[in-house]
């Protein structure tokens, strides 16, 4: 199949004519990849069981992993669900359109092939203007998983989509790089308390503020223990495993405390090294020590003759002497790290390194989503120093 690629001239305000053909393809049961504010989606008609099956096939994805139905206005929600729980109403008012997906009890209209056999349905109203207009013109809810081959990082540019899906889908709508870079937050609103099934740009802190307290599915924080099933079936898959073995380096609380305690041996050691190597980087001891440890592990592996890469940040780049380094963004800006995360992982796959060592990030706010994606990519291999 020839995959057509169209480039949207003005991302903020796409012309209807630019999207007519894409909308027609969706209406007729075809597949179109399109930008959203989180990652690129691989769209098909959510009410058409055959379109859903084609999505699974194009991605090479197990068909028990349900899809998210994307809508462009609140009126489009009611036909998809059998009930709108109060928490769902509150969240829709606060965060839609935006990077939030909610799980509702499904209506009979939604085929089981879209929901992977579940009696619930995931719904999201994206706020990207291209996505919004495309869904509206298609006139149907659009099922869209991330537009990557199963097992590769989610795509944040149309080129990433092209690498994975060229020849397998009818069209790619190129709206330039996405803004956020990690997939939407998923919240289950079917029970008495909202439960976060996947962390994202809408953070636990924002939801706690709204509801007092929300719960987290245990699958978010650690490897799956036997007998525990994540409520978002997709969270059970390793999702993406880099070609090189990824290890995250994280500082323990004890280390952080020592780094700020004058008189501790770590404090003296780190002060001495920082003074030797130039305090002028302006790094705080925590960032410096983390980078220094990542560098040490990378150098060790290099000495064994392995090809090694490091994931660094703008602030810490100059600390590294070892290996191929790629910056994932600024430590001072979780937004920038989320934005670059998948592109950097894709780059390391192309570079063909054996081992990758990465700095880690604070696990609060957007950092929760960042650490969730990085930990999963590392198969939860985290070196705590
Ligand atoms: O940001 C996003 O959400 C992107 C863009 C394209 O909108 N889409 C996306 O889709 O990330 P996907 O298919 O890669 O991830 C959907 C996740 C999976 O983990 C799936 O298991 C979960 O949503 N999910 C879908 N329906 C569900 C349901 N009824 N109950 C629980 N989890 C569900
Ligand atoms: Mg995905």
From TrEMBL:
Top-level enzyme category: transferase
UniProt signal peptide: none
Cellular component GO terms held in the UniProt record: cytoplasm
Biological process terms in GO annotation: regulation of translational fidelity; tRNA processing
Positions bound to L-threonine: 38, 70, 124, 184
Subcellular location: Cytoplasm
Residue stretches making up the YrdC-like domain: 16-202
Keywords: ATP-binding, Cytoplasm, Nucleotide-binding, Nucleotidyltransferase, Transferase, tRNA processing
Main localization of the protein described in the UniProt heading: cytoplasm
Manganese found in the keyword field: no
Keyword Membrane among UniProt keywords: no
Catalytic activity: L-threonine + hydrogencarbonate + ATP = L-threonylcarbamoyladenylate + diphosphate + H2O
Binding-site list for ATP: 61, 65, 120, 144, 146, 154, 198, 240
PROSITE patterns associated with the record: YRDC
One annotated GO molecular function: ATP binding
Enzyme Commission no: 2.7.7.87
NCBIfam families noted in UniProt: L-threonylcarbamoyladenylate synthase (TIGR00057)
UniProt record similarity statement: Belongs to the SUA5 family.
Cited function: Required for the formation of a threonylcarbamoyl group on adenosine at position 37 (t(6)A37) in tRNAs that read codons beginning with adenine.
Designated name of the protein: Threonylcarbamoyl-AMP synthase
UniProt organism field: Candidatus Caccovicinus merdipullorum
């Amino acid at each position: 199949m020839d995959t057509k690629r169209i480039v949207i001239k003005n991302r903020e305000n796409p012309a209807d004519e630019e999207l007519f053909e894409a909308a027609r393809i969706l209406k007729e049961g075809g597949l179109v990849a399109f930008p959203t504010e989180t990652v690129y989606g691989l769209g098909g008609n959510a009410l058409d069981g055959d379109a859903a099956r084609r999505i699974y096939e194009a991605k090479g994805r197990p068909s028990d992993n349900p899809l998210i139905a994307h809508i462009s206005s609140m009126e489009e929600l009611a036909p998809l669900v059998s009930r709108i729980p109060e928490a769902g109403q509150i969240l829709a008012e606060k965060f839609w359109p935006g990077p939030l997906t909610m799980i509702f009890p499904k209506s009979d209209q939604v085929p089981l092939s879209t929901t992977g056999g579940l009696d619930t349905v995931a719904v999201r109203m994206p706020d990207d203007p291209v996505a919004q207009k495309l869904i509206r013109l298609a006139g149907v809810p659009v099922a869209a998983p991330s537009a990557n081959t199963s097992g590769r990082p989610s795509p944040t540019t149309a080129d990433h989509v092209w690498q994975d899906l060229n020849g397998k889908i009818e069209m790619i709508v190129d709206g330039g790089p996405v803004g956020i870079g990690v997939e939407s937050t998923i919240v289950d609103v079917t029970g008495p308390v909202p439960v976060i099934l996947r962390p994202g740009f809408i953070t636990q802190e924002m939801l706690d503020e709204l509801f007092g307290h929300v719960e987290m599915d245990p699958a978010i924080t650690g490897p799956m223990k036997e007998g525990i099933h994540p409520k978002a079936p997709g969270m059970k898959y390793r999702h993406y495993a880099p070609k090189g073995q990824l290890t995250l380096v994280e500082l323990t609380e004890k280390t952080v405390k020592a780094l700020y305690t004058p008189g501790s041996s770590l404090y003296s050691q780190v002060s001495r090294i920082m003074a030797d190597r130039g305090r002028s980087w302006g790094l705080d001891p925590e960032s410096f020590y983390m980078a220094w440890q990542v560098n040490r592990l990378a150098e060790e592996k290099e000495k064994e003759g392995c090809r090694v890469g490091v994931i660094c940040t703008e602030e810490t780049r100059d600390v590294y002497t070892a290996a191929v380094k790629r910056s994932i963004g600024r430590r001072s800006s979780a937004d920038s790290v989320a934005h670059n995360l998948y592109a950097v992982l894709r780059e390391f796959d192309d570079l063909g390194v054996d081992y990758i060592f990465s700095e880690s990030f604070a696990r609060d706010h957007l950092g929760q989503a960042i650490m969730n994606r990085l930990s999963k990519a590392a198969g939860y291999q985290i070196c705590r120093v």
